[in-house]
């Protein structure tokens, strides 16, 4: 595994480097500790909208075409992303071009103009992005699941925001949010891959100029649940998309890695329990997947599947039955080894890509109480026993943690309610 080095710039911004000897690519990722969890009702969606605006022009590069043309000429990849707890901007290029990429992305983050006319044009783009998500139930059902968990709170709101907010945002709104949430108090810089001395010096010079910001922290999640809960969004589509899962733990919790491993066993591969039962044995779904999400103050495990409308109850019964079984019987030695090997193998493959490597370390420093290297992560994972997994399963697969989100043409919720229990 590659070693990392952490440097603290003069303005206290952490700069993490993960050099890879002989790597032909390099990635710069700048992550800010802000996202939709850091918003209020009236500006929900502004984190995501602001992310778009960084690509609209700077004083030196006055429009989208100029910016994108310079980035495209590097022959690499670039993008940005907004989540509930962080926002990131990255460029991956041939290692000899990283210093140029740093100049461009630094200019974007330090000197964007947030032109009022561009804001108005981008409103249409983001509304169409919102429409795209809502028209894609496989993608949208997870947002609905989080509204079931967290309700009418920043944790339960959708990252993209509402159409009303998107249409009403002004340049003043962006400048206010930018001044508060973007700056030295919330920035983290990561360089990974074929890093040269000139790249490190360029990164130091550029990002040490980030000024201090009056960063505002998010509201903590308040988790209160005493019985299973669910939400059905009626939509005239040919299948039902469901997400059924349980509240789990925050990132860094002693149970975190056990929950991750449970998700692999339940629905993390083509040999997983739910893939075999739902798809291979019963032909109920094409898409079946169990996943986990870990925030700084909450987390969950959930299984998503797209199933025939008439078979919704059957699919739900199977998923809950597998959840129940893993609390009652220990995982076999062979299945446990297979899950660990699968997890480790996928992680090692990811760590060969400089953008994935940069993302790993950025998420670590932004979210985790103490940075954990991939090697440390796998070492802890390998210590988990079948008894550990059963004990964790018994803690999370309970009625007072069980939640369900459904999108589809499903009008009878009485059967669903009757089945939603362990």
Please explain how this structure is put together.
By secondary structure, the chain is of the alpha+beta class. It folds into two domains: 5-207, Metalloenzyme, LuxS/M16 peptidase-like (Cytochrome Bc1 Complex, Chain A, domain 1, 2-Layer Sandwich), CATH 3.30.830.10; 229-419, Metalloenzyme, LuxS/M16 peptidase-like (Cytochrome Bc1 Complex, Chain A, domain 1, 2-Layer Sandwich), CATH 3.30.830.10. 45% of the residues lie in helices and 18% in strands. The strands form two sheets. It has a six-stranded mixed sheet, with helices on both faces. A five-stranded mixed sheet has the order 7-11-8-10-9, sandwiched between helices. β1 (5-8) and β2 (14-19) form a beta hairpin.
The gist of it:
The protein has helices spanning 46-53, 64-72, 98-111, 116-134, 137-150, 163-168, 171-181, 197-207, 256-267, 273-281, 312-328, 333-350, 354-367, 374-382, 386-396, 413-419; strands spanning 5-8, 14-19, 25-32, 77-82, 87-94, 187-193, 229-234, 239-247, 288-294, 299-308, 402-408. The chain is an alpha+beta fold and 422 residues long. Helix 9 packs across helix 15 (386-396), helix 10 (273-281) runs antiparallel to helix 11 and helix 11 crosses helix 15.
């Amino acid at each position: 595994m590659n070693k990392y080095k952490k440097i603290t710039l003069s303005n206290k911004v952490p700069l993490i480097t993960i050099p890879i000897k002989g790597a032909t690519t390099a990635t710069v990722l700048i992550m800010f500790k802000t996202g939709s969890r850091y918003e209020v009702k009236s500006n929900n969606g502004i984190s995501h909208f602001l992310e778009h605006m960084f690509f609209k022009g700077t004083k030196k590069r006055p429009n989208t075409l100029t910016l994108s043309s310079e980035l495209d000429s590097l022959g690499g990849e670039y993008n940005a992303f907004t989540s509930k707890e962080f926002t990131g901007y990255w460029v991956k290029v041939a290692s000899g071009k990283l210093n140029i990429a740093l100049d461009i992305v630094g200019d974007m983050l330090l000197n964007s103009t947030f032109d009022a006319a561009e804001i108005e044009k981008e409103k249409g783009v983001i509304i169409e992005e919102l429409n795209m998500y809502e028209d894609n139930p496989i993608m949208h059902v997870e947002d609905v699941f989080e509204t079931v968990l967290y309700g009418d709170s920043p944790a339960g709101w959708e990252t993209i925001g509402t159409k009303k907010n998107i249409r009403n945002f002004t340049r003043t709104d962006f400048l206010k949010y930018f001044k508060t949430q973007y700056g030295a108090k919330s920035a983290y810089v990561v360089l990974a891959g074929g890093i040269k001395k000139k790249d490190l010096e360029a990164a130091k010079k550029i990002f040490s100029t980030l000024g201090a910001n009056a960063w505002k922290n998010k509201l903590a999640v308040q988790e209160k649940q005493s019985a299973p809960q669910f939400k059905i969004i009626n939509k005239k589509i040919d299948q039902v998309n469901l997400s059924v899962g349980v509240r789990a733990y925050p990132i860094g919790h002693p149970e975190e890695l056990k929950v991750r491993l449970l998700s692999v066993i339940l629905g993390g591969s083509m040999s997983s329990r739910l893939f075999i039962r739902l798809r291979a044995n019963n032909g109920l779904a094409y898409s079946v997947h169990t996943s986990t999400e870990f925030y700084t103050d909450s987390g969950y495990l959930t299984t998503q599947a797209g199933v025939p409308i008439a078979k919704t109850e059957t699919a739900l019964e199977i998923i809950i039955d597998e959840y129940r079984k893993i609390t009652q019987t220990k995982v076999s030695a062979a299945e446990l080894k297979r899950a660990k090997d699968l997890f480790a193998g996928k992680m090692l493959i990811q760590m060969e890509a400089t953008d994935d490597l940069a993302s790993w370390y950025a998420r670590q420093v932004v979210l985790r109480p103490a940075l954990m290297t991939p090697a440390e992560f796998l070492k802890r994972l390998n210590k988990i026993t079948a008894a550990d997994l059963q004990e964790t399963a018994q803690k999370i697969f309970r009625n007072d943690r069980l939640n369900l989100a459904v999108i589809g043409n499903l009008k009878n919720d009485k059967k669903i309610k009757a089945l939603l229990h362990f």
